[in-house]
Amino acid sequence: MVKQDPFGADPGAWLRRNTPDAPVFFFRPATLQATAQRFLRGFPGAVTYAVKANPAPCVLDNLVAAGLRTFDVASVPEMQAVRAACPDAALHFHNPVRSRAEIAEGLRLGVQSWSVDRLSELDKLAALPPGSEIAVRLKLPVPGAAYDFGAKFGAEPEAAAALLQAVARRGLTPSMTFHPGTQCDAPAVWERYIAACAGIAARAGVTLRRLNVGGGFAAHRGAGPAPDLERVFARIDASAKAAFTGPPPPLVCEPGRAMVAEAFCLALRVKAAEPGRITLNDGLYGALGEWRDLPAGGRIAVLDPAGKTRTGPAHPVRVFGPTCDSLDQLPASLPLPADLAEEDWLLIDGMGAYSGALVTDFNGFGARRIVTL
Ligand SMILES: *Cc1c(COP(=O)(O)O)cnc(C)c1O
């Protein structure tokens, strides 16, 4: 649900007037569109959006308004959500494992690119029209991201070369893709992957139609400065030019987190406060679902019930979610103002990615309301 905010761009003013007892996401469409423009202008290739990071209709609509026309999808509901926002959008079905029913639906919806990381999944794509683009997904043991995606998907170099040859033999069009792992602020990871892709394609004797360098771009999570996306873009561009003999294949990226994180701020209310510990109205089963694997916490403001920022000295506070499961607590204490009290709000910035998308119904809690600023 998207509600227009009648009180301007200030979450504090909105909270003071509405005193919601349930969690609220504040959505800044202008920020989302500016981030999309930053990718479209800065990335040296085509830009797609990984829908799983935040599939809310207001997100898809604003990305389309900003000029995005290609979306990375992993399921039939994600394809339907994209089509609802943009009937002629291009779909990249880059979940490398699919049921036959999902493949049939993807064909019906005109998917333009498919990824595979094993021969058995390529076999399942036998009904694709000749020339269809198949992106072979590579995995390498490179650290650098906050969370490794290679643990589940991706073919190792030898298998990737064999897959490329199988794709070409079947009259399909070979591309390559990889994912550096999410929240990756190390351009060297892309450099290693791009060099490996060039070598594997050369060894397989195929020309890549495109090279998709994945998502993984870092969002601003910690207290330090925001990640420098342009530095990563420049390194990707230079790596591709250096890695291939002759002109490199056209590049594609599929950011999720870095596209949408900054566009949402999450307001959580303090249900109970005791010395050194608080209970919030959402937690690990809701919009903080990522926090156990990817803690954040560098960008939190605390507002009192009048909407004023608390400025007391920071103390470590253990933070619990609202459900009756003892797992529902943040893994480490957060530094929060000592004068923090019941019915205060925590305003957490940069919370647009893997937040609303992970909310469960457990115990009847979870952040669902979106207020547009
Ligand atoms: C999740 C995912 C992405 C987006 O990753 P971010 O780290 O959110 O940018 C892109 N491509 C694929 C195939 C994914 O699974």
UniProtKB/TrEMBL annotation:
Top class in the EC scheme: lyase
Pfam families per UniProt: Orn_Arg_deC_N, Orn_DAP_Arg_deC
Assigned GO CC terms: cytoplasm
A GO molecular-function descriptor: ornithine decarboxylase activity
Catalyzed reactions per annotation: L-ornithine + H(+) = putrescine + CO2
The entry's keywords: Lyase, Pyridoxal phosphate
InterPro entries, per the entry: Ala_racemase/Decarboxylase_C, De-COase2_C, De-COase2_N, De-COase2_pyr-phos_BS, Orn/DAP/Arg_de-COase, Orn_de-COase, PLP-binding_barrel
Cofactor: pyridoxal 5'-phosphate
Pathways involved: Amine and polyamine biosynthesis; putrescine biosynthesis via L-ornithine pathway; putrescine from L-ornithine: step 1/1
Domain Orn/DAP/Arg decarboxylase 2 N-terminal, first and last residues per copy: 33-261
Superkingdom to which the source organism belongs: Bacteria
Record has Lyase as a keyword: yes
GO biological process: putrescine biosynthetic process from arginine, via ornithine
Modified residues annotated as N6-(pyridoxal phosphate)lysine in this record: 52
Orn/DAP/Arg decarboxylase 2 C-terminal domain location: 262-352
EC number, as in UniProt: 4.1.1.17
Active-site residues, Swiss-Prot/TrEMBL: 324 (proton donor)
Family recorded in the similarity comment: Belongs to the Orn/Lys/Arg decarboxylase class-II family.
Record-given protein name: ornithine decarboxylase
